[in-house]
Amino acid sequence: MGPTRREFLRIAGGALVVSGVASVGRRFEGLGSAEPAARFTQPEVLTSANGRLDVELVVAPAKVPFGPGTRFAYTYNGTTPGPTLRVRPGDVLSITLENRLGETTNLHTHGLHVSPSGVADNIFVSVPDHDRRTYTYEIPADHRSGTFWYHPHRHGTVARQVFGGLAGVIVVEDTIDAAPELVGATERLLVLSDPVIGSSSAVLDVSMMQEMQGREGDRVLVNGVAQPTISVQAGTLEHWRVLNASSSRYYRLALKGHSLHMIGTDSGRLATPVAVTDVLLAPGERVELLAAPSKAGSYALRSLPYDRGGMGMGSSSGSSRRTTLARVVVNGDAPAAGMPPSLAAPTSLALPDATSRRELVLAMGMGGSMGDGNSGTSNRAQGMGRTFTIDGESFDASRTDIVTALGRVEDWTLTNTSPMDHPFHLHVWPFQIVARSDGKAITPGWKDTVNVPAGGSVTVRIPLTEISGRTVYHCHILDHEDLGMMGIIDVR
Ligand code: C2O
Ligand code: CU
Ligand code: CU
Q: N or C of the chain: less Cβ packing under 10 Å?
């Protein structure tokens, strides 16, 4: 039960290693230990004004602090996570990406309902090393409010670059944010990542087996910091926007001694707060939570064990271990603050009837042939006798898998025939979950990423409306995307 039982061991010299790895050292107890508790930090915030936000992001490797020391990372403007971009519906967001990474990169705005054409949310655009490119995003006037994010999306190196640290948050604010309970709340961003700690880019090199399992690092960080302490006031509301920016690790969030109130999912707000004891966050997913601390004390914000399956042969994942993410120190005693009675207008959550349906099968297959026009990484996977496919096909940038018409409302049944979970993500058009094979409760809310459990299926309803263009859907275990579990949709 002790929240720090499986936390980190400290060894002389200040280096930290994960418990479970044999090592000599004493247990790091967090508060009260000789090691000062790491400070909870927030990324720099850049806010739009007069309908525009113009941002320059320099992508480059750097040495960054993570609490007990410094480490090698890929950064936006020198930090990981990168700056938080705050915009409003109707704004124009312009991002000039300057590439100093030493390799090609590009930019994707995950979850934004914006055009995938031209130099907007177009993942087929690339920015070579030592080059720069200005992306322009026109955010529709009726865009939903919520927590979105940006990260690289160049097929073959997405997992490596995001794992290296390339991720930042985009907040879209609207009138829901003016609710008195939210205005009075303390808003915080919690970006979860799990890098390998090291001093060179060697931390980004993983084995083929790790790619197939989906790479996980050795430390879990919150906004780039190991086990920070969040100091809060009893009687106030805490408003947390949580992003799982890990390449592959799942988190099952729980706050000791408190229930959490979910007010938003990936792509929008719920109608009313929904109380939960824990919430599963697959890679790419976001959740907005409220907590109402009332009693003085120190409480662990933890990830509870979750089995995301695997490749077999004794492969295990960090997702299946209990991990302390942060300590929440509540100051004082006071009656719990009230929750906002309502959030999104129920009409904004209403779903039209489906006009068509299709089925997609996510599979890890055996066999596959070399040299059939796929990318090098897909061939590498096939060379190993394994393929990561959607509907039997490995990603091919020159093939369009789904051609459909603007205005359709499609039900997609996503079936996972493999022994591990796959978080399915669609660009540009948010959806809602309408059915699940595992019988788990469905919270009505807008999503852009949904976990499809091993051997299970999930049906989502997607209004393919307002924006046309050609873009992708894929597994958000980013190694799987790089290995070919991605397809192309063209909405005409
Ligand atoms: Cu978060 Cu296709 O990406
Ligand atoms: Cu995306
Ligand atoms: Cu996957």
A: N
Instruction: State if residue 425 touches ligand 1 by the CB under 6 angstroms criterion.
Output: yes
Phi, psi of 376 (to 5 degrees): -60, -40
Each residue of 308-359: pLDDT tens digit? 998 765 556 888 999 999 999 999 999 999 999 999 999 999 999 999 999 9
Going by CA atoms, what residue is nearest to atom 1 of ligand 1? 110
Our answer on whether the CB atom of 284 is closer than 6 Å to any ligand 1 atom is yes
Average pLDDT over residues 356-364: 97
C-alpha 302 – ligand 2 centre gap (Å): 26
For residues 32 and 435, the model is more confident at 435
Considering every ligand atom, which ligand is closest to the CA of 152?
1
Query: If you measure from the C-alpha of residue 214 to the centroid of ligand 3, how many angstroms do you get, rounded to a whole number?
Result: 8
Ligand 3 midpoint to CA 373 (Å): 21
Q: What is the pLDDT of residues 370-422, one digit of tens each?
A: 444 444 444 454 445 568 999 999 999 999 999 999 999 999 999 999 999 99
Closest atom of ligand 1 relative to the 284 alpha carbon: 1
CA atoms of 478 and 463, how far apart (whole Å):
25
**Ligand 1 atom nearest to CA at 153:** 2
The pocket of ion ligand 3, defined by CB under 5 A, consists of 422, 475, 477, 480
- Residue 198, beta-bridge partner list: none
For the ranges 98-112, 268-282, 298-312, the lowest mean pLDDT is seen at: 298-312
Ligand nearest to the CA of residue 429, numbered in listed order: 2
Q: Which long-range contacts (CB under 8 A, 24 or more apart) does 124-127 make?
A: 124/397, 126/154, 127/97, 127/99
Structure tokens at 404: 């459909």
pLDDT of residue 313: 56
CB burial readout 22-53, b (16+ within 10 A) else e: eeeeeebebeeeebebbebeebeebebeeeeb
Considering every ligand atom, which ligand is closest to the CA of 451? 3
Whether omega before 83 lies within 30 degrees of 0, making that bond cis, reads no
**Residues 53 and 47 sit within 8 Å (Cβ to Cβ):** yes
Q: What is the structure's pLDDT at 315?
A: 54
- Cα 34 → chain centroid: 33
* Structure confidence at residue 314 (pLDDT): 52
